[in-house]
Amino acid sequence: MRSNCAVRLDAVSKVYGSGKHAVRALDGVTAGFARGTFTAVMGPSGSGKSTLLNCAAGLDRPTSGRVLLGDTELSGRSETELTRLRRDRIGFVFQAYNLLGALSVADNVTLPLRLAGKPVDRGRLAGVLAAVGLAEHHDRRPGSLSGGQQQRVAVARALITEPDLVCADEPTGALDSRSGRQVLDLLRRIVDELGQTVLMVTHDPVAAARADTVVFLADGRLAGELHRPSAERIAQRLTHLGDA
Amino acid sequence: MLWLAVWLAWSTVKDRKGAFVAAFVAVVFGSAVITACGILLESSERSGAPTERYRAADLVVGAPQALPVADDVDPRFAERATLPAAKVAEIARVPGVRAAIADVSVPVSLLTADAPDGRPVLGHGWGSAALGPVTISAGRAPAGPRDVVLDATLADRAGVAAGADVRLAVGSNTTTYRVTGIAVPPGSRQPAVYFTDERAMELTGRPDRVAVIGVLAAPDAGDLARAVKDAVPGVVVYAGRDRGEAEFLDVGATRSFITELSFAFGGSMVVVIMVVVGSTLALSVRQRLRELALLRAIGATPKQVLRMIAAETVLVGALGAVLGVVPGIGLAFLLRGVFALAGAVPDDFELSIGPLPLLAATVLCLIGARLGGWIAARRAARLRPVDALGEAAAEPARLGRIRLAAGLLLVPAGLAMAIVPPLRVPGEGAAEGAAFSAFLLVFAVGLLGPRLLTGAVRVLSPWLHRGSGVSGFLATANARANSRRLAAATTPLIIGVTLAAGQLFSGTTAGAAAREQAGDGLRAGYVVTATSAGVSPEVADSLRDVPGVAAVTPLVRTRTLALFGSGDDRQIRSYAAQGVTGDRLAATLDLGVLDGDVADLRGDTVALSRIAAGTLGATLGGTVDLRLGDGTPVTPTVVAIYERGLGLGDVTLPHDVVLAHTTDRLDLAVLVAAAPGTDAGALGDALRAAVRDLPTVRVSDRDSFVAAQQDATAGESVVGLALNAVLLGYLAIAVVNTLVMATAARFREFALLRLVGASPGQVRAMMRGETRIVVVAAVVIGSLAALPSLVGTSFALTRSLIPSVPPPMYAGIVAVAALLGWAAIMTSTRIAMRPAPVDAIGARS
After folding, report:
1. Contact indicator for B36, B170 with CB cutoff of 8 Å
2. Cα–Cα dist A102/B493, whole Å
3. Are the beta carbons of A121 and A86 closer than 8 angstroms?
4. Measured CA distances, A197 to A91, B559, B646, B663, B838 (Å)
5. Does the beta-carbon distance from A83 to B758 stay under 8 Å?
6. ipTM exceeds 0.85
7. Distance between the two ends of chain B, CA-based, in angstroms?
8. In terms of Cα–Cα distance, which of A160, A99, A150 is closest to A125?
9. Contact call for B758 and A115, based on CB within 8 A
10. Whole-prediction pTM value?
11. Is A102 touching B (CB cutoff 8 A)?
């Protein structure tokens, strides 16, 4: 049976440190993120939202529980196997420092393919760059692009491998609101038009409002979710998270 | 205000140890090298063996043993300077002098079973025993010309007691003496035998000269040293500790060797260390520009930033300088050991470790750290906060126009330096100019580094990374895009390769030329040498009559000082010199005469090598101002100029002139050429028969003499190699430092690569690719920068364009460069990849 979820967390806990100083960043979180959906993860600082993203993406190993990327179990795999899985099936967009300054836009975008030793399909590259609206910047260096453009290059790179999941950690955190909106538009569009699955961590209710579902975290536990919420509802919910 | 800076600095240093490790290491090792030089210098000042045979003498009077020079180390005479015997009476007449006793030293070999025993011992007149005082433990003092007293050490060695006979060789003449007594040795440094005073004087061959005069003071003599100095001109008076200096010539020779070495080597190392410490600190400051910009942004004034960096550098500098003192002491002992092994210092040369060198090292390192920190900080403080925040991310695309122009101008200047002086400048200046070319080119490399690296990457990448896939592609892309960063990291390695090649191969070129010249120049088929101190001059005469001998040349070696220039520009150089007879010289020793005729070498004449003549500005028929081995001034006329100075000595004087002014008055060898048609084996037998009665004399063939001479010069190159090792070792630290810092700073790039799917292996493969670029570029550019100077040096020294580059040595340089580059880059890559990529990418810059 092919799972309906792009990624599924099953009773995932993550403890940092040990003994007295142990910090429980995730505490038995079970969640599934359906294919072709855009999910935002929100919560106050220290709620475990980045840990959740890192565990889902195979960047961090849960202390207990299972993570399933499609039908593939992530726990118990070596770092090399995880690297291969990430390379082939997960795309990443970070807050900042997303691109290698030494490489052109096209080379940055195709880097995951090259690292995987796969042939670079020029047509696909052109398609992805067109999708993020940077077709004409093919040979530019990242240093000559604006922050928003750089972030769109990062999205293009995340898409080049046709991944099962695109993970974005505060992708608009370092951008002005206009550029941020463009990047969110782009993420929305790749879900709607390309059927991609996007999992995004953010603290910005406006950004989260573009998602299909917003999942709230508090103290390492799920604290409810909202479907197609407005930014106001999200903000309201966030304010009262601590009260629950 | 100041405390704020210190507190900020301390917190930064404590928190960001990594950024300061490199500077700290550079300071520690720099301090160690300066400390070692300082200890050697201080030890040489304080060194000196305590007197043994002059303990009872209140004063010891000798002839000046060095040429006094204002504002510099006085160059020493290579041979013992002697006093006219008449001075004894003169000194004895000085009021307060109870007795003035002359002492002479004759090199003697003690023969046991017809073989000489160990190194030559010194023979003295028994009269000098009063200066020890040397007492007799058994038997009586010598009374007749065949009487001798041995000290107990020697008697034990020879296994003789009072009343026995011993055979002693003085020069080549062996005589049997009766041991009339055994003396209590006054020390262990130099074994001695005692003849009667008359016999000792006779054996020196110069009965009118004495080596030193010991003075016994009368009671209530007052300041006798002053009185002697005033009353007797042209003498040096030694008292107290210094008396050993008059007794043991090697003490003074060692002192001047170590002093010159410490000043010359230590001085240049101080400059190198200050540059390395300064540039390392500058690099560490540059890597923190964002942090410093943040400080500026939150309200720190440029002055506060300057102060904070000053406090940091002083903190790191002081800590490193003080800690470096400990390995410095170890390095001093190591160098002392190497010098002693090479025979450059006597085994009993002791290091004295005082506070002064340690203090000097600390202060000099602090100055270097302070200067480097100041230069870097000025730039950081000048930046506007926004500029600094932006600049750290993107590197400026192009080199400044002035920098480019200066670099481009230095290249032809460096090439000209390698070509013009060897063609135009006479003497040593030619080779020195050529060597300077390497420095100009290294400077040009520093300025043009990014351009050169871009070019090198373009040329090298295709074949370095053929088939290495994505990691090679990434390495090439990085190298192209970050040529400036790459150049900054590679430049020290290039400089290291250039200096290593320049230093080592100019040495091997000179050494190979000297060996070749010595080999080619020696025409004699047979060489007569001695197992004792030398060959008596009469041996040469006796060999002239051996049938089948065409030419006989006695050969004596020494060093002369040459004075040239005038007024303030007066200079002194020390040259290896030889004394030979000009008669039929070409048959035994071919100096490679360029001009004039060595057959005219007699009386007040000299032949000079091309290089020496060039330096001294001497021409055929002109005169030169020389000091012979014992300091005697002569102004001989130049009768010939020759090529083979490196191998055979730069100054060739008539045999009798040189011999009379050496300590031992013995020949090093006698060169014998066979007459045409003579059977070589028969001549050898005839020569051996002629010296049958001289047990210390050996007849050897040409090749074994050449080989023995080469072994004898090996010690000098050991000292040179040891010093080069210290210099290059220190540069290696600088190389590793810059490479590690440049690599470690790229942790976020590595994290990003891993997040987009690169395995740690792929990142390492990429860095291996960059290492290949760095190492190959450094070796190629470094070798090219050294090449002109080596060709120029070779042409200046030997008139040949091809320098001597031993392949194993060059392979060693390449291997060390590759190993340093690889170890530094790959280790720091591993360390930079240690944090989890997600943590690293979010980490502060």
Report:
1. no
2. 23
3. no
4. 10, 89, 81, 97, 21
5. yes
6. no
7. 28
8. A160
9. yes
10. 0.80
11. yes
